[in-house]
Every structure is written in structure tokens, then in C-alpha cells.
Amino acid sequence: MRSLTTRLVIVISSLLIAAILAVQLYWLNTTYRYGTNEFNTSVLKVVRGVYEDIPLLYNINSPLDSLVEKRDGRSFLFSIDSIPSKDSLMVHLRNELEDFHVFTDCRVALYDHKKGEYIYDQYISADASKKNNDSLSAIPIWKNKHSYIHLYFPNRQQYIIHEMSNWIYSSAILLALLVGFAASVYFLLKQKFLVEIQKDFINNVTHEFSTPLSVIDLSVEALEKPSTQSNPEKWNRYLSSIRTQSAYLNNHIHNLVNTVVVGQYHLAMESREVPVNELLRRAVIQLEPLLQKKNGQVIWHLEEKQVSIPGDESHLYLVFFNVLNNAIKYSESPIVTISTRVENSRMLISVEDNGPGIEVSQQRKIFSKFYRAPATKQVKGLGLGLYFSKKVVDAHQGQIRLESIPGKGTIFTIDLPLKK
Ligand code: ADP
Q1: What is the longest distance spanned by two Cα atoms in the chain?
Q2: Whose C-alpha lies nearest to ligand 1, atom 25?
């Protein structure tokens, strides 16, 4: 489980990244607005310059604001009283645009109020090599009370953004740095998490292998004593304990080895007719000592017909053993109900327990390699049984599902096809 410090690091880093991104976005937005205002001011200066260069107005003292009208951000209309010649207007306009550093394409159209139409229309390209008027679409007539010159800047937005390019590059670099930082934190934490899993795993392996071995060791010692040899009941008890513990070891070794194999190769599956009910009974017999130790009980609801399914017997046996073993070992006083039934050409095997249950948020994770739910950490295990079981069931074109109510218990259902 991730420690408090790890969570703090994640929360603080995420907050920092979010704050830096928010500030950066705020500055980009402010710069864009500033660029837009600056562009509008420059265009107004251009218009004022043109008014000063050519006699366009009867009253040259009229305030600029009342003469110029902005439309949709890209169009500026400025009123005129007398119609200038096209050439003179173009020459002066070009000069003013250059003087006030408006280096973007501009379409100039002159609307004659008396004629009720545009009398000329010229495209001034910022790129001197491009200057044709050919494919200009019709320009809308905005008003008809006065004659006016219509300045239209089709690429205004791109131009403003281009003017902000230094800001945009620095933001992109900052974003790349933040992504790099987030990725480093992620990989460091992942590494730390893997080291923790490895440590847990080694502890669990040590426990899971050393406990049965010491029980076997003690039982053999007891078997060697004459007092045990002369007491058949004691003798059988120690013998059964050795059998159980060695079966346990055997299953752990299988789970371990198979997990390594699953990671590297495909599981080699034999295909035979597997008698499901019999396999379940065998698994319960092997788990009998654990069941007795916990005063547990098994309730059977088996399909009456002796149904067999195609599959790999030893692998399926391990699947049943793992699910049953969990049902018993995680429940305090286990009452385990085992049911089998045939439905729509499939065999459904359910194992229901009255154990601690599994939180919804962990129900998918328990099938991951080494994953162990925090609530059950006090019971030892390797976190491999369900991982391996799912692989085996998948390889049989089956499914393993669970329903669980925390505090009440869990039902694992293994759903296998009756035919290949
Ligand atoms: P192990 O039992 O060795 O830890 P498993 O892969 O069999 O590994 O199970 C993974 C985890 O799923 C367990 O550690 C436990 O947290 C949870 N789990 C599995 N079966 C049950 C169950 N019947 N009741 C409650 N929790 C369970």
C-alpha cells in the first residue's frame, strides 16, 4: 500500500503542476487580449494617419471613435465624406500599415453611399510576392448612410498569435518540463511500489514455505518417537499433518512456477475430460485439516449428473483449490457453499463464503499478480492464486466472476464451457 508520504508527494506535485499550468494559461490569455488591444490601437492609428494624409472628411475635428466602427474583430469601417482615388488611397494605406507595423493581409473596399455599392476592392498582401484580387468573395455591405472604407484583416487572429510566439514557445517548453517532471515522479513512485511489492512478496514466500516446512519437521520428529509409534491415532494425526503441509507446499510451488511460466510462455494445457464434482471433492479433502482447525463447514449443492468438461485436470484442480482455500482461510468460522450446475452448455461452479468480503474498488485488482487486499493482509498469502487461476480459466475459454458484500462474504463463480 502506498504510504502517507507517497500520497503527500503525489498530492503536492499534482497541485503544483495544476497551479503552474493555471498561471501559464492565465498569462497566455492576458497576452492574447493585450495583443488584440494593441492590434486594434494600431489599426486606429493607421486610420488616423490616412485621414491626415488624404482629405476625406469635411470636419477633420470629428473624434476618431465616432468615425470608426469595429465589426466582428476583423472588420473596421471608417466613414468618409469624399471619395479618394483608388491609387492614392492604396499608397497611403500601405505606408500607414507599414509605419504602424501592421504586417498582415488587409482587404480594402470603398463603399459609395450614393451608388449603394462598393466601387473598388483591393487585397493588400503582407507577402509582397502575392498580390492578386482574383478570388475575392463578395464583401458584405454594413451600412448605407455614409460612404465608408472597409478594412478587413482576414488573418488577424493568426497574426496576433504569431506575435505571441515567444510566449507560446516558452509555455510549450514549460509544459514539456512539467510532463517530464510528472513522468519522473510517476516512474519513481512505480519503482518504489515495485520494491515494496517485492519486499512483501519475499516476506510472504518465506512465511508460506517456512511454516509448512517446520510443521513437517516437527511431525517427523514426533513420528520418530516410540511413544508416537505405539499410538496409532497420534501416528495418523502426524502423518495427515505431513500430507497436508506437503500438499500446501506443492500447490504453492505450482502457483509460483506457473506464474513465472505465464509471464514468459503460454501455459501448456492438456485436454482431457475433467470430472468437476470429483475434483472439487478432492480439493476439499486436502483442505479438511484447515477446515477442522477453524471449525468450518462445507455445504454441497452439486449437479446430480457426473458432468465432465474438456480441460487440463491438474490446472483446473489448482483453480478450485485456490478459490476454496481462500474461502476457508479468509473466513473466521467458514461456512462454504459449493454449487455446480449446468446452464446453456456451460458448467457453473460457485464457491460462496461468509468471510470479510472484498471492496468493489478491489474486485478487479485481486486478479493482478501479487495483489493482496489490505483488509486481509494479516492472513498470509502470495497474491498469486487468483492471478494464476484467471489465466487458467481464460485459457479454457471460461470466466471467473465474483460478487461480494464487504462484511458478509463472497461468491466466486467459475464459468466453463462444456464443449471445446
Ligand atoms: P493470496 O490469497 O495468496 O493472497 P490470491 O491471489 O488467492 O492470493 O488472492 C488475492 C487477494 O484477494 C487476497 O490476498 C485477498 O485479499 C483477496 N481474496 C481472495 N479470495 C477472497 C475471499 N474469499 N474473501 C476475501 N478476500 C479474498
Answers
A1: 133
A2: 357
Count structural domains, the chain.
3
* Binding site membership of 334 for ligand 1 (Cβ less than 6 Å): no
355: Cβ below 6 Å to ligand 1? yes
**Whether 220 and 100 share a structural domain:** no
User: In the predicted model, is pLDDT for residue 131 greater than 70?
Assistant: no
User: What's the CA-to-centroid distance between 380 and ligand 1, angstroms?
Assistant: 10
Domain residues for the domain of 191 are 187-245
Residues 202 and 301 in one domain: no
Residue 231 CA to residue 49 CA, distance in Å, equals: 120
CB of 241 closer than 8 Å to CB of 212? no
For residue 375, give the ligand 1 atom closest to its CA.
16
- Which of 200, 369, 376, 389 to mutate to test ligand 1, by most ligand atoms within 8 A of the CB atom? 376
Last residue in a domain, options 99, 129, 163: 163
Confidence of residue 189 (pLDDT cuts 50, 70, 90): confident
411 vs 343: CA distance, rounded Å: 18
Name the band, by pLDDT with cuts 50, 70 and 90, for residue 132.
Answer: low
Number of Cβ within a 10 Å radius of residue 150: 21
pLDDT in tens, 217-238: 999 999 999 999 999 999 998 9
d(CA 212, ligand 1 centre) in Å: 19
SS3 label, residue 349: strand
Report which of 115, 167, 137, 153 is spatially closest to residue 39, judged by C-alpha positions.
153
What is the spatial distance between Cα 120 and Cα 170, in angstroms, rounded to a whole number? 43
Q: Which atom of ligand 1 is nearest to the CA of 208?
A: 3
What is the atom index within ligand 1 of the atom nearest the CA of 409? Answer: 24
From 201, 326, 365, 384, the mutation candidate for ligand 1 (largest count of ligand atoms within 8 A of CB) is: 326
E strand or H helix that includes residue 123: strand 117-124
Q: Is the Cβ atom of 384 under 6 angstroms away from ligand 1?
A: yes
233 and 347 part of one domain = no
Q: Closest ligand 1 atom, CA of 376?
A: 16
Q: Check whether 304 has a pLDDT greater than 90.
A: no
Whether residues 371 and 238 fall in one domain:
no
Evaluate whether 334 touches 355 at the Cβ level (below 8 Å). Answer: yes
Q: Are residues 16 and 159 in the same domain?
A: yes
CA 393 from chain centre, in angstroms, equals: 26
Is residue 328 lining ligand 1, measured as CB closer than 6 Å? Answer: no
d(CA 389, CA 409): 20
Cell of 258: 506457473
